[in-house]
Amino acid sequence: MKIITPAAVCIALCMTLSSCHRKPESIEALPSHYVTIDDSIKVHYKIWGEGPKTVMFIHGFGCDMNTWEEQFDAFRDGLTTSPFPKGECSSKDMRLIFIDLPGYGQSSKPHVDYTLSFFSQAVTKVLDEEKCGYVFLVGHSLGTPICRQTLMERPWRVAGMMDIDGVYCFYPKLSEHPTEEEQTAAKAYEEAVQDFASSFDGDACSDNIRGFVQSLKGPHTPAEITDYAMSCMPETPEYVASSTMHNLIDRKWWNDFPIPFPAEIICTQNSGLEPDNRDKMQALYPAMQYTELEDCGHFIQMEQPTLINECLRRLITTAIQNNVECYEFGIRELEQNYAGFEFKVTEENRAEYEHIKQEYLDSISMGVMYGPNAVAEMCCYMQDFHLGCSFKMWSNRFPMKWANYKLEMKEYNPKPVAEKIDDETFLLRFPSCMGDDAYVKWSWEAVEQYRKSGCTHLIVDIRGNGGGADWQYRPILNILYKQSGKTHGVVLRNTPDNRERWLQYGPEDEWINALVDSATIHSSEHWFPVGDEYESHEMEVDPRRPQKAAILIDRSVGSSGEQLLLDVRAVAPDVMFYGRDNSLGCIDISNVTSVQLPHTPNTIHIPTTISRRVILGEKQIDGHGIEPDVRMDLPLPDSLTDNIDEWVRWVAEDLKKERNK
Questions:
Q1: pLDDT per residue over 213-226, tens digit each?
Q2: Is the dihedral of CA 609, 613, 616, 618 positive or negative?
Q3: What's the gap between Cα 313 and its chain centre?
Q4: What residues are paired with 44 via a beta bridge?
Q5: Which of 18, 56, 312, 462 is such that its CA lies 20 to 30 A from the CA of 238?
Q6: Strand intervals (E) in 485-566
């Protein structure tokens, strides 16, 4: 056990300054760094190492970064782990970050609310400053709920978490009709935690903290550990201590959200654990490794550093293994089940694809990249709007050409509209194919309103219609229908996984079951047709069909919104498409299934079908979009909600021109 005295700090610091090539002997000897949050609050932190794996250590109540001296000593000197399939983890490729939380150590001590979110903000700011995209968090006592809060707010940034005798509030859950006994127990618990927090209020704060420190030592805790705690914890300003504790017990922080990431839970019975503590921890951390000590004091990282260091080594190894498995699973999904794979990865770019795939695998194996992040990046490489991960559909490296009209307009929030523009023209704004039953009912009623309006011109405004279900645009197709027409159908990438997932669309649906059965019989066929070769539209022409009709589009129209355009072009060739931009280009590869990625709450969205048009070698829509017949050379309107905007009025006037007959 090593405790650093002020004299030793001075000597170590002088030695560091005079002999820069030597390793620092203590955390105190490391140079200080600061970041600022909320304009004026300085957060103090120190760093050792430049390796790709980043570990951040977060101290407990009343303490400072020096509580991690034993961890610094061990990892600085080269603690190694045993090899695993993708490489060996060692401290030589690690970066250690030690923080003084606001209100503690050498950080600012402002008069503010010391909430878990405030502390998490400080942690994140340090990580941002050091450009740490992906880290392991280690928290002691109060540091544990701060780790947990950081992970819940930014799960993509945390590789794994270590809880060293962390603080938890397990507020009793009342049944729907609680008994008097349940209510009494719940009230007693709330009073107990309130009394505990209140003990840090007022003039008695320092004395109460001294008593608190005495309660934290175990029967074999070395005196120097208690001396360390006594040297710093009672020095906590009363307003910091009081605010920290009252905010800590606030019920809003204590949800039952399960953390599915690798977690090391190390606790001691000396802290008054309940008999069911393991079960409670298992519910919060399904992927945990649990260690419960009998008589160790609260500062386990100081009293039993070898145990903590070995658990941290195991955490890093497990997290990297899990992320490699997650990534390799995602790659298999792309290569084996994604309908667009062979059209996105061809002989022309195969070498580039393989290089990027290996680059991300290497980054994961070094512990610097989150597995689902890498899967999402590979999805973005394909440039398919239907393909992606549940939490990340964008990439700086492989940017998708999304239209973000919200940045270019005061308000972009298209809403359903059915009303006359003038005596000749009726507007029907249909901004989505993802409506509920009430929305579909509105669509039929809106078409009926048009029929009764007496208008001879109809504008169908589908700006913002990013898709959903094709059947929802049936009312629109009915009123525009002029002649029988055919559009290309789709074919299924005929794999066992895709067949199984199609059954999930409708386990009791006879058509789906028959389709899957037939695809199974023809399993040797790489592509299997879904339905007939072409989709034919046989309807009656409505006698009140508009004399002139236009569909207004923008770059946000995709998927089922684009299928509406294709169907209209097939059955109503006289209808003109208006717009400044092409549609999104998100229709060729479709029928998405969501697949759970291992070791993570995230899913990957895998399109299972592709248009027969693409199979036949015809021009693809994806990546290009559907072009308007009339390209409008107009600036974007100020806003698009439920209003009649400038574009609608421009189209209405254009429909009145003789040349459009």
A1: 999 999 999 999 99
A2: negative
A3: 26
A4: 34, 100
A5: 56
A6: 485-493, 527-537, 548-552
Asked if pLDDT for residue 23 goes beyond 80, the answer is: no
> How many residues are recorded in the chain?
661
Architecture of the domain spanning 405-484+538-587+622-660: Alpha-Beta Complex (3.90)
Question: What is the rounded distance in angstroms from the CA atom of residue 402 to the CA atom of residue 389?
Answer: 16
Tell me the sheet residues that pair with 417.
429
- DSSP, collapsed to helix, strand or coil, labels residue 135 as strand
d(CA 283, CA 258): 6
Give the position of tokens 């699973």.
329
Q: At a CB cut-off of 8 Å and minimum separation 6, what does 577 contact?
A: 550, 551, 553, 565, 626, 627, 628, 629, 630
Radius of gyration of the CA atoms of the chain, in A: 31
What is the tens place of the pLDDT at every residue in 265-316? 999 999 999 999 999 999 999 999 999 999 999 999 999 999 999 999 999 9
Residues 6+ away with beta carbon under 8 Å from 517: none
What are the beta bridge partners of residue 487?
A: 535
Residue labelled with tokens 């940017």? 399
Rounded-to-integer distance, Cα 347 and Cα 354, Å: 11
* Sign of the dihedral through C-alpha 527, 532, 533, 537: negative
| Three-class SS state of 621 | coil
Neighbours of 125 (CB within 10 A): 18
Q: What are the structure tokens assigned to 27, written together?
A: 């955390």
pLDDT given at position 13: 37
CB 652 within 8 A of CB 459: yes
In Å, what is the CA distance from 653 to each residue of 37, 457, 548? 55, 10, 12
Which amino acid is it at 133? G
- Residue whose C-alpha is closest to residue 388's, from 373, 402, 401: 373
Task: Provide the residue ranges of all domains of the chain, joining segments of one domain with +.
Answer: 32-168+254-303, 325-389, 405-484+538-587+622-660
- Measured in degrees and rounded to the nearest 5, phi and psi for residue 169 equal -115, 115
DSSP state of 597: P
The band of 619, judged by pLDDT with boundaries at 50, 70 and 90, is confident
Query: Residue 182 belongs to what H/E stretch?
Result: helix 180-198
CATH code of the domain occupying 32-168+254-303 = 3.40.50.1820
Positive or negative, the Cα torsion across 276, 277, 278, 283? positive
Cβ proximity of 611 and 626 under 8 Å = no
- Strand segments, DSSP code E, in 538-660 are 548-552, 576-579, 589-596, 603-611, 630-631, 639-640
